[in-house]
Amino acid sequence: MKSDEYSFASDNCAGVDLDIMRALNDVNQGYVHSYGDDVYTNKAKETIKNMFGGKASVYFVYNGTGANVTGISQLVHSYHTVFCSQVGHIHVDECGSLEHNAGCKVIALPSTDGKIFPEQIAPLLVGIGDEHRSQPGLISITQSTEYGVVYSQEEISKLAVFAHDNNMHLHMDGARISNAAAALNLPLRAFTSECGVDLLSLGATKNGLMFGEAVVFLNEALDKCYPYVRKQGMQLHSKMRFIAAQFEEMFGTDRWLNNATHANNMAQRLVRGIEKHPQITITQKVQCNAIFAILPESMIPDLQSLFHFYVWDESKGEVRLMTSFQTTQQEVDHFVDAINRLMQ
What we know:
By secondary structure, the protein is α/β, with parallel strands linked by helices. It is about 35% helix and about 15% strand.
């Protein structure tokens, strides 16, 4: 059996939603203008804008790193500091791309579940106006966090007020925002634009797209020069209709929510199956489609011979198990059965 036949490594390992594939094929007809000057892109942009109250500015890009880096680069200068969690994607998993491209300073704050709070940032706001000091520019949070935990509306609102009171912007990395919305049982706008978020990286590849993300300026006044930043950042897709068609199919229907709800439900099914063993410790709240668990060290190689998943923290045997829109009950039950056998 191949180790990747059953994968709980990442929702990135899943394929493309079949309806998304159909949407790609549907727009693969004839000729349209390039670089987003087409009816498909305009329609998809209106769909996304309406999800956030109709006042957002929407730009499609290739990928999540491109969305984060170009979007944030629009809002900060090289003398600014960006605050994020110590497990924030812009700090850990983007190869220093933000610092390289924006030239800014990134300060990663300690966090047990991926969340950060105003009281952590407040003591660091020193030297304001001092030309010898990097100046605070932006707070970046991830929803859901890299640990699969969700921010509440209240927590996001407090961060937005704090950011704006201190002349900063609030960015949300929404790589798994659909999973967060499903967990919160809220529309996307309820914990973004309505809470004061300025900039959103709207992700969907983890939820069934082939490629493409969206940079959404929820404060329209902030996007003035972004088209140039996107082009310089190598994120302007020439055949834009193929990104737009995917977003229209995903967010113009309930597919984004249905897929995310399924992934979350599969995580709940999986955690119910394994948490009954006292030798297994669940280390984070299971709110979305991620499970973090400490397994007996001797068990991990045997499991990895059957299933693809990552060891998150080797020092304590903590693993990460991810479900996706593609995960089936049979796959979950197969994993649970394997755990049960190894526990005997």
